[in-house]
Design brief:
Elements lengths: L1 H20 L5 E4 L23 E11 L5 E4 L5 H14 L16 E6 L15 E6 L3 E6 L2 H14 L1 E2 L6 E10 L5 E7 L7 H13 L4 E5 L15 H6 L9 H12 L4 E8 L44 H17 L4 E5 L5 H6 L1 H9 L5 H19 L2 E5 L1 H4 L9 E4 L12 H10 L3 E4 L16 H7 L9 H4 L2 E8 L9 H5 L2 H10 L7 H17 L9 E4 L5
Parallel strand pairs: 3-4, 4-6, 9-10, 9-16, 10-11, 11-12, 12-13, 13-14, 14-15, 15-16
Antiparallel strand pairs: 1-17, 2-8, 5-6, 5-8, 7-8
Helix pairs in contact: 2-3, 4-6, 7-10, 13-16
Bound molecules: 2-acetamido-2-deoxy-beta-D-glucopyranose (NAG) (8 copies).
Length: 557
């Protein structure tokens, strides 16, 4: 009986699948169970993801010929644009057997006009607006204020082009798109300390980010577990702190990642987390860490599990710590072309500090009543060091929760949420409080992509999609303090074997929330469009995971 039921289920599946195979869409998804048919409208071929802000569609179809189609631009000396045009011409004509339909008008060229000639490094708040028009009369026109806007336009152009399933003719409809991001900060965090992530995987992820118009790679470089970043000032940090000498990002690697990201309009924001999450520093520099006194004040370096290990947090009463950090961040400032640095500052567990008699003495002398004031002392000095170096900074929300005063232009990243830990409040409550203090924010609390929903993994992307980072209680002005959001991928259970498929296409849901910010989230339609995007990523070499049953037509096997 069970066998028959299954047979029925599968034959129905194949019947439905066959029906749609030749329907002109290049992806197809179906129900999890036949009893729950999918609602919503199937995505038209060539539907861009994330959806543009304004998209005037037309039924008029043009065809393209791979041997005479050209994209040209008014910026002749901008390597970013030149490289992008080459990339996108390849994506548009990826099918070696693609053809032209000679009966349709031909789209011969797209001309790109960029107003600002600056072509250096993307930075927070860059203008990414673009206008894209395709018509048989005027041909293709892209207008953007910055080269970064032009990159987003080229991505859209490459997604608008589709193929006739039978003749394989390259097609594009006449259209006019006015587009800009709802949020200026659209990031992905990757933790390279719990597991080392190879450079090639990081670059593949940058590709996927560009295909989804995301613009910040937040690189959580080091943590308790390992120190894979090569510092020239302190080479022993990675020599002793990395998992192995192979699992180190040399400065050449770092530069090549920054360059790869720049060519795709993506910022690389480095994070060196402190004063917690620093155990790996101690492999080479044990004197930087606070000795913990497990059970009595006469014996240092005694763990008290699970409260603390023998030493794991920087020692805020050691002057050497501040000199060391100053030198390390000066080196970072030269290597990374970013105005911002991420200082971490999350999850300082006070018990080790409290166990240490020297710290107790220091606190007494300095009239500190609790360890929260000691944390403030550390944070205050670090922020002053950053100011001296000329860095703007981003921090996790913890010091602000603890009453620390940071510089006005600090960006505070919201991560705490009751769904991560029942002891934490709902993220909207802390966002409301931090907004009242006037800080700009980046929200991550609803976007921890390392977690998989049980028992409904298929709901994951829907929850990500529905999270509105401005949905806390506050004035309009306070909501505007949210610059965007960031999908976080902590790598306790992730390495190069599953990083890309864990992130994609689930991070695409975050990308559309942050770029388009649809006012009414129609999940039923979005499901089909997301699947089309998943197949698009797949065709471009990104092993993005499926979101439902079904298949991408080119990859039916
Ligand atoms: C493109 O034109 C075709 C043919 O008129 C139409 O069926 C299709 O819906 C159009 N696609 C888009 C994305 O507007
Ligand atoms: C292109 O067409 C040739 C000849 O029909 C066929 O052998 C080949 O597999 C096709 N290539 C692709 C990528 O479809
Ligand atoms: C595509 O353009 C090339 C070069 O101009 C031309 O030889 C070829 O016939 C065109 N293909 C079609 C299908 O029109
Ligand atoms: C570029 O500059 C021209 C002339 O000032 C202006 O008309 C046009 O709107 C600008 N383009 C964009 C995309 O802002
Ligand atoms: C690195 O470690 C080695 C071995 O402990 C030591 O001899 C050397 O002085 C250290 N280098 C620096 C720059 O601290
Ligand atoms: C303090 O703790 C250490 C390690 O647990 C132990 O060896 C030592 O005897 C203790 N000393 C006193 C005075 O209790
Ligand atoms: C720490 O002490 C200060 C000064 O008495 C007080 O304002 C603050 O609320 C205390 N913080 C905590 C977390 O107890
Ligand atoms: C917003 O305020 C209302 C009214 O005080 C309250 O019921 C609601 O729970 C608050 N929402 C959030 C997300 O804090």
């Amino acid at each position: 009986m069970k066998y028959l039921k299954m047979l029925f289920k599968f034959s129905l599946y194949f019947a439905v699948a066959f029906l749609f195979h030749f329907s002109g869409v290049n992806s197809f998804i179906t129900y999890i169970e036949p009893r729950h048919p999918l609602r919503g409208s199937r995505a038209k071929p060539g539907t861009p993801w994330p959806l543009p802000q304004r998209w005037i569609q037309s039924q008029k179809v043009l065809s393209l010929n791979s041997s005479n189609f050209r994209i040209s631009s008014n910026l002749k000396d901008c390597d970013v644009l030149t490289a992008a045009i080459q990339r996108y011409e390849k994506f548009i004509f990826a099918d070696v057997n693609g053809t032209q339909n000679p009966l349709l008008p031909t789209l011969l060229q797209v001309n790109v006009f960029v107003n600002e000639t600056s072509c250096a490094y993307p930075q927070q708040g860059d203008d990414e607006y673009y206008l894209l028009e395709i018509s048989s009369v005027k041909q293709g026109v892209i207008e953007a204020r910055t080269v970064w806007g032009a990159l987003r336009a080229l991505e859209t152009l490459s997604q608008l082009v589709y193929q006739n399933e039978k003749t394989r003719a390259y097609l594009v409809n006449e259209t006019r798109i006015d587009d800009w991001p709802a949020y200026s900060y659209r990031g992905i965090l990757i933790d390279t300390a719990r597991h080392f992530i190879p450079v090639s995987t990081l670059k593949q992820n940058l590709d996927a980010m560009a295909f989804n118009k995301m613009n910040v790679f937040h690189w959580h470089l080091v943590d308790d577990q390992s120190f894979p970043f090569e510092s020239k000032t302190f080479p022993n940090l990675s020599k002793y702190g990395a998992y192995s000498e192979k699992q180190v990002y040399s400065q050449t690697d770092v530069k090549s990642i920054i360059e790869y990201a720049r060519l795709r309009g993506i910022r690389v924001l480095p994070e060196i987390d402190s004063p917690g999450h620093t155990k790996s520093f101690g492999k080479a520099y044990p004197e930087l860490l606070t000795p913990c006194y497990g059970y009595n004040s006469s014996t240092p370096y005694v763990p008290k599990y699970p409260h603390f290990s023998e030493a794991e947090t920087l020692n805020p009463i050691e002057e050497n710590v501040y000199t060391f950090m100053s030198n390390l961040f000066q080196e970072l400032k030269i290597l990374f072309p970013e105005k911002y640095v991420h200082l971490g500052m999350d999850e300082v567990y006070y018990e080790c500090w409290e166990s240490n008699p020297n710290i107790q003495f220091f606190m007494k002398v300095n009239k500190m009543q609790n360890t929260s004031q000691l944390e403030q002392y550390y944070v205050g000095r670090m922020l002053q060091i950053m100011k001296n170096i000329g860095y703007k900074y981003m921090i996790w929300q913890d010091p602000i929760d603890n009453g620390v005063q940071a510089a006005d232009d600090t960006i505070v990243q919201i991560w705490k949420d009751s769904r991560l830990d029942s002891k934490l409040g709902e993220w909207r409550e802390s966002a409301e409080i931090i907004a009242k203090k006037g800080y700009r924010m980046v929200v991550s609390a609803c976007w921890y992509l390392n977690y998989i929903n049980y028992p409904y993994p298929g709901k994951d992307w829907e929850n990500f999609y529905e999270c509105n980072p401005r949905s806390f209680n506050g004035s309009n002005e306070e909501k505007q303090l949210v610059l965007g959001g960031e999908a976080c991928l902590w790598t306790e259970f992730v390495d190069s074997t599953n990083l890309i498929s864990r992130l994609w296409p689930r991070a695409s849901a975050v990308a559309e929330r942050l770029w388009t910010n649809p006012q009414t989230a129609n999940l039923d339609d979005a499901r089909f469009r997301l699947d089309q995007q998943r197949c698009r990523l797949f065709r471009r070499g990104i092993p993005a995971a499926p979101i439902l049953n079904g298949f991408c037509e080119d990859y039916a096997i």
